[in-house]
Amino acid sequence: MARRPIRVLVVDDSALVRALMSELLGDDPGIEVVGTASDPYIAREKIKQLAPDVLTLDVEMPRMDGLTFLRNLMRLRPMPVLMVSSLTEAGASVTLDALALGAVDFIAKPKIDVARGLAGYGPMLVEKVKQAANARVARIAPADAAATPPLQGPIGYRTTERLLAIGASTGGTEAIREVLEQMPADAPATVIVQHIPAAFSGPFAERLDRHSRMTVMEATDQQPLLAGHAYVAPGGRHLRVVRSGARWICRLGDDDPVRRHRPSVDVLFESVAAHAGRNATAALLTGMGDDGAAGLLSLRRAGARTLAQDEASSVIWGMPGAAVALGAADEVVPLEQVARRLLAAPRER
């Protein structure tokens, strides 16, 4: 029996954008746009009437802003939400707030020539809606989920020459935050690839820095890797780790995307396998697709400890699931255990 189409409700204050998005999504036989809404109050009633599977939501709307609506929605009726807003490029912190409140992912509206530009986003929009429909969504607590929580006691660790590597995509901004929150100030140097646009990686690193005892920053070319520091790949650039004398350094590259991504988790993991080997431990977290799976296998073959986030705690079990299918993971663990296992002693050979 054929699977029924994904039911989508489009919420945006622009009539043009509502019409364009409805057309772009409706062209895919696997998606049915069941309704549109021009503001959150209308959206609230249509959610009750139409029971959509996925909501696309603009941040900037009349009568109630999108974040306030999202906060209420995720507390009272959790469902997959894809943020679609002109603010997602200029206001990266707003989008990160939305992801912290439970939005699955985001897509930016073009800045100019909305009709033609948004049409070019059609395939990506369809793909992200389909991802969102399969995502795991949790009810948030009544408190503001975007507020910085108090740091809990860190996992004890004494620094040795170790290197940690983390890769993630959909759902990864919050998963990485949760991992770094548990890290002690003297944790090994940590390199991170999150699939994220160029405008977002700096604000993302700043947000992680506020949530972590480690010093978190956007990586720069030729930067030495230091214990107690974490380095986020800039959006739109590959991050590699190479050995330079007695230390590791970051190398940034503008070469072609790998598995459609730049930065690519595979690119990072392959470099860590080549230059750190058994001194490394790596974790592949939630995300759509298979970027990072082959790289994690290279790390395991090089003697590194390798982890994959388990399906139950992943928003999308694509990347870690692909790694498990390849036999690339020494351990498959829930998100709350990733930090502790990253800091565990290297595996014996």
UniProtKB/TrEMBL annotation:
Keywords: Chemotaxis, Cytoplasm, Hydrolase, Phosphoprotein. The active site is at 169, 195, 291. Its EC number is 3.1.1.61, 3.5.1.44. PROSITE patterns: CHEB, RESPONSE_REGULATORY. GO terms for molecular function: protein-glutamate methylesterase activity. Residues 7-124 form the Response regulatory domain. It comes from the Bacteria. It catalyses: [protein]-L-glutamate 5-O-methyl ester + H2O = L-glutamyl-[protein] + methanol + H(+); L-glutaminyl-[protein] + H2O = L-glutamyl-[protein] + NH4(+). CDD domains: CheB_Rec, REC_CheB-like. The modification 4-aspartylphosphate is found at residue 58. The keyword Nucleotidyltransferase does not apply. It is found in: Cytoplasm. InterPro entries: CheB-like, CheB_C, CheY-like_superfamily, Sig_transdc_resp-reg_Me-estase, Sig_transdc_resp-reg_receiver. Residues 150-344 form the CheB-type methylesterase domain. Its main location: cytoplasm. The keyword Phosphoprotein applies. Involved in chemotaxis. Part of a chemotaxis signal transduction system that modulates chemotaxis in response to various stimuli. Catalyzes the demethylation of specific methylglutamate residues introduced into the chemoreceptors (methyl-accepting chemotaxis proteins or MCP) by CheR. Also mediates the irreversible deamidation of specific glutamine residues to glutamic acid. Belongs to the CheB family. PANTHER family: PROTEIN-GLUTAMATE METHYLESTERASE/PROTEIN-GLUTAMINE GLUTAMINASE (PTHR42872), PROTEIN-GLUTAMATE METHYLESTERASE_PROTEIN-GLUTAMINE GLUTAMINASE (PTHR42872:SF6). Contains a C-terminal catalytic domain, and an N-terminal region which modulates catalytic activity. This is Protein-glutamate methylesterase/protein-glutamine glutaminase. It comes from Luteimonas rhizosphaericola. The lineage of its organism: Bacteria, Pseudomonadati, Pseudomonadota, Gammaproteobacteria, Lysobacterales.
